[in-house]
Amino acid sequence: MDVSTARRTILRRPAWDEIQVPDQVLDRNQALFGERLTPDEAVRRILADVRTRGDEALRAWTARLDGVEVPNPVVDGAAIQAAYDQVEPSVVDALRVAARRIEAFHRRQPALSWIHNDHEGTVGQLVRPIERVGVYIPGGTAPLPSSLLMTAIPARVAGVPHVAVITPPQRESGLPHPATLVAADIAGVDVVYAAGGAQAIGALAFGTESVRRVDKICGPGNLYVTLAKRQVFGLVGIDGLPGPTETVVIADEHANPELAAADLLAQAEHDILACAILLTPSRPLAEAVQAAVLHQMEELERSETIQGSLARGSGIVVTENLDQAFELANEYAPEHLCLLVADPWRHLEQVRHAGGVFLGEGSFEVLGDYVAGPSHVMPTGGTARFASPINVNDFVKIVSIVGLNAQALAAIGPAAATLAHAEGLTGHAAAVRRRLQDESPK
Ligand SMILES: NC(=O)c1ccc[n+]([C@@H]2O[C@H](COP(=O)([O-])OP(=O)(O)OC[C@H]3O[C@@H](n4cnc5c(N)ncnc54)[C@H](O)[C@@H]3O)[C@@H](O)[C@H]2O)c1
Ligand SMILES: N[C@H](CO)Cc1c[nH]c[nH+]1
Ligand SMILES: [Zn+2]
Q: What are phi and psi of 388, to 5 degrees?
């Protein structure tokens, strides 16, 4: 498609409450709720119910939405250990490789306390971990043990004393997927709960008889999870709104069309709401990628999800030149920006908004999804304009330190009193004046 069509369609970011959900979602909501509720309305209903009825509501929504009875959402330690027997040893090893790389990357991230002393005393900051963090891990369409490592390990590195994981139960066992349980053990989390969707977010935010309330909820999820996090924000902190995944590939005429197509399809398979967009100034490349997408799709398993995603927010856009491709990418602010261009490092300076940038054919996004080191939980929906991937700073807060002495009072107290008067706050001014009087020579 051309640039102006793309700007009107796939590159346009609707506000959260005007997201056009496919008819199939509304049809499903008609069946579930007896009304064609928008996802935002459905989430409001679920959260209100969990807030008032606690575990009872959690059980009821789990039964209705996930199709499984879970009498107690707390997954016991024996079930976590038993999960090792159900996971291929090579998968356990790969999870350990990923965990090591993620930990090493996050140990390099500074979140530092500092103190400045001078003749007026001390100012500075204390960095303190958040005490109780709830990590949401998706599990509706596919288990995502990698997302658990990508969220819980930065929390651990930050020193969070209590990390709870909540993730949907599987229909057959009533437990989360075994690989997710193994990942929870490798990451060293404190408790795992089996619940998904908005009801899980409600349980973490409000607390129930069996789920302890947390201070902050982090981690990715589908539209329902993301809308629920948005609705409980304020009562608890949230990391951001990492929702359905999105990838923009910028490619020039030298790019390998088969690899560009593979990278687009890899993200399209996550969700019918996932977006995979190619921006290229080369029409022959655009045509070759389109052909490659069509034939590669046939080899993949999740064709229904991929088709849904390709029909909606995805597409191939022919730009006037590479500069225009970067301009459009910055406007869109994608979660992932993949540069399949000659000398990608030369273009890094043009990147202003993206959750992560992947430079060249060898550093493709799927490596970032699993083992590169940075968290793959990145801002979506255009929030990369102001938000960052999950990182250690998401799990700490700063306490400012003010330890001033009498010299400071004499030097800066009068300015404080003047500003207090200017704001009409005579009580504030009096608190300064009393001290200045106490300090004045008798
Ligand atoms: N941005 C990131 O960093 C990142 C990372 C990993 C995954 N993701 C995204 O996470 C998402 C995973 O989605 P998922 O669906 O597989 O798992 P999920 O766990 O996020 O959602 C499953 C839950 O959704 C709820 N649900 C489903 N249909 C509903 C309805 N009609 N009404 C109310 N609730 C409903 C159910 O309770 C279910 O437990 C994908 O969109 C993927 O792109 C994003
Ligand atoms: N690409 C997804 C969003 O960044 C993360 C993921 C998990 N597993 C595979 N991929
Ligand atoms: Zn992925």
A: -125, 165
